[in-house]
Amino acid sequence: MRDCLLPKGAVIAYDGFPTFADREAFVSVYAELGCAPGIFDIHHGANGVIAFDGADRATGQWSLLFHNINLASRTLTQMGVEYDDVYVRQDGRWWIAETRSRRLSCLIHTVDADGRPGVAVMGEAPETFG
Fold first, then answer.
1. pLDDT tens digits along 8-53
2. Which architecture, in CATH terms, is 2-123?
3. CA pair distance 116, 34, nearest whole angstrom
4. Is residue 23 exposed (0-12), middle (13-18) or buried (19+ Cβ within 10 Å)?
């Protein structure tokens, strides 16, 4: 993920998270939340639309289906998300310079000790995630 984001000055503003002004801080939080034991994530991006604003700049819009299994909290989370990105080409290489998301829907199940799911959140996502 780190090597997709502009090395200096990338803006990462994902709904439910603080805004990050550089990639290192974002990657650190991402690794802490998404790369921990007992965390299983699926990020399925689709419906990408990219428009070129010139030879070295483009914008993109993407839909995302996010699914998370968290064994420690015994939760299953599914979210519909949309992304708006800005891409720039520097030294012949394309980078994500800006990426912003908004959560459109959220379904969180809790799973009891017997494996039975219950709905904890249905509709709008909680203020924060993670």
1. 999 999 998 899 998 999 999 988 888 899 999 999 999 999 999 9
2. Roll (3.10)
3. 24
4. buried
Residue owning tokens 């993920």: 1
Tell me the pLDDT tens digit for each residue of 66-111. 999 999 999 999 999 999 999 999 999 999 999 999 999 999 999 9
Residue in 45, 87, 44, 42 with CA at minimum distance from that of residue 62: 45
CA distances from 127 to 60, 102, 116, 117 (A): 25, 12, 26, 22
Element (H, E) at 104: strand 93-111
Q: Where are the domains of the chain?
A: 2-123
Could you give the CA distance from residue 122 to residue 119 in angstroms, rounded to a whole number?
Answer: 7
